[in-house]
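Extended Data, panel c. Modelled sequence:
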Amino acid sequence: MANEKTAHCVDLLKSRLENSRKDERSDEEKKAEVTELFTKYYTEWKGGGSRERSYKKIPRFYYRLPAEDEFLLQKLREESRAVFLQRKSRELLDNEELQNLWILLDKHQVPPVTGDEAMISYEAYLKVGEKAGPKCKLFFTAKVYGKLLHNDPYGRISIMQFFNYVMRKVWLHQTRIGLSLYDVAGQGYLRESDLENYILELIPTLPQLDGLEKSFYSFYVCTAVRKFFFFLDPLRTGKIKIQDILACSFLDDLLELRDEELSKESQESNWFSAPSALRVYGQYLNLDKDHNGMLSKEELSRYGTATLTSVFLDRVYQECLTYDGEMDYKTYLDFVLALENRKEPAALQYIFKLLDMLNLGYLNVFSLNYFFRAIQEQMKIHGQEPVSFQDVKDEIFDMVKPRDPSKITLQDLVTSCQGDTVASILIDLNGFWTYENREVLVANDNDGISGVDLDDP
């Protein structure tokens, strides 16, 4: 029917055009008539009688959020979201249903056993899907089976791998619902205060944090939240997408503290563990010599091995948020996260901003020389022969291999995978010394020798 109408419109237009050849009207008048006719017939073909009626067919796509003073609307929206999330939660598999699924899978395993793993064929997989109930329907698809199909000669998949896949999906949905309960705006992201509330209420459920004093909770929450925002909010918007929180490994690290038998090594390497949080806060207190709760540049200069250059520290206090020239704990956490994770793009972005003192968007020879001069001065203080900047500059450019041979961008540092080394060379005497003596250190490690004195020329 639509094709017939279209053909009819075309015929009418053609006939009008043919008749217009006999007219003595101007080209502009003829074009205007053609446009008018086309608009008329096209509108009729689409089923609209007028522009006004056609606008009414556009579906609503914008819903205004309640204003701050519209308390009733805000409460209504909050309650409706809570009901919606509860309904979504009930759609997930509970522990009993997961156990029943495992029993069904085990009953339908197909021989022969590959190694120690029980396997299941596609036919048996579909049978389990029919018996498992409606909640499991989304897991028993050809797409899921294809994802888990590897190199089995009989075309089967591992029962354990499939069950772990289901468990992971259920966990992700549960966690998303849990995080969404703290999404006050209901827009799919958490503000800093939202994430603080989430972690504060999560603490009692983490056995590894049982030993924390309640007086330390606020410092622990601040320590934990900063890692999320430092790495997941590079533009410093003050909010993080829930989707990004689920996609990164930080939440896994945090929930790992549910394990009552977590090893000491795992605790020490986990930023969210009690020993790690106490270590960071303890370092902050030790640096704060005047006990005013803030760090001056002189106090921060003792951070780590006390070998950060004064030029770099000047830039820290110029660019970072300070209060009367002193740094608070939150700003200190960003500083620590950047220096302890120098290989990460977010950390390199933090350091690059400090090195790019002219705000050019790149580092040139002048910038490199400006920072390395402080390294040379420290070498003189320690009785060492200063290394030529020309040699270091050439090594840096050789390492990074920037797209423009005269300047180094942040992207160049990230792409080269040498950004952490370049940063260490320019801001930290100990970092430069480690790089300069890397071959000796490797040899010493092989011989079981360590602990070389920095002051030793």
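The radius of gyration is 32 Å. This feature is highlighted in the accompanying rendering.
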